């Protein structure tokens, strides 16, 4: 039952005009679930999107279990919209805000560093997560940040920034919206 405790579930939908006026409207529908605190943490997200008339499905899964100073985990990213996929098995040492270890892939072993911090003060919450892996020929950066201002106990406005680099490919998202926490 620990998997469901403190789970955050998010849904988002956006429509925008494409850069090419001859194409239909671009859209993105995203579903995500995450648990950001405790020894067992996860982030699972699936996006269905259309960009310039082409439809894509993007999937991200990041699961980590910490035991004492050690952690193990897996990360899987399939970005059909940006034409790259990678998967990693991870192991290393952890503190409250930093993980350092190895990310094992089909192609070899990478070093991995993850910085994660959540700041809370009254009705303001700020999160930053920077994940970096390299084997000196491949670099992967995954940067996520979000600021929330709670209007009520369960309602907030937010601004988020997500940017992922994979060997020169870039996937970048900015969002502003209204959130409800159940």
Task: Describe this protein's structure.
The protein is mainly β and 182 residues long. It has one domain. It has no helices and twelve strands. A twelve-stranded antiparallel beta sheet has the order 1-2-3-4-5-6-7-8-9-10-11-12, with no helix packed on it. A hairpin with a 4-residue loop joins β5 and β6. It is globular, with a radius of gyration of 17 Å. The chain starts with 7 loop residues before the first strand and ends with a strand. The mean pLDDT is 89.
What is the CA-atom radius of gyration, in angstroms? 17 Å
Question: In terms of per-residue confidence, which ranges show pLDDT below 50 for 5 or more consecutive residues?
Answer: none
The number of helical segments is 0
N-to-C series of helices and strands: EEEEEEEEEEEE
Count all strands and give the number: 12
* Percent range for β-strand residues: over 45%
**Major β-sheet profile:** 12 strands, antiparallel
Q: Helicity, in percent? A: under 10%
Q: Taking all residues together, what is the mean pLDDT?
A: 89
Structural class category: mainly beta
User: Per the principal axes of the C-alpha atoms, what is the gross shape?
Assistant: globular
Give the strand order of the largest sheet, numbering strands 1, 2, ... along the chain. Answer: 1-2-3-4-5-6-7-8-9-10-11-12
Integer tally of domains:
1
Q: How far is it from the N-terminal to the C-terminal residue, by CA?
A: 17 Å
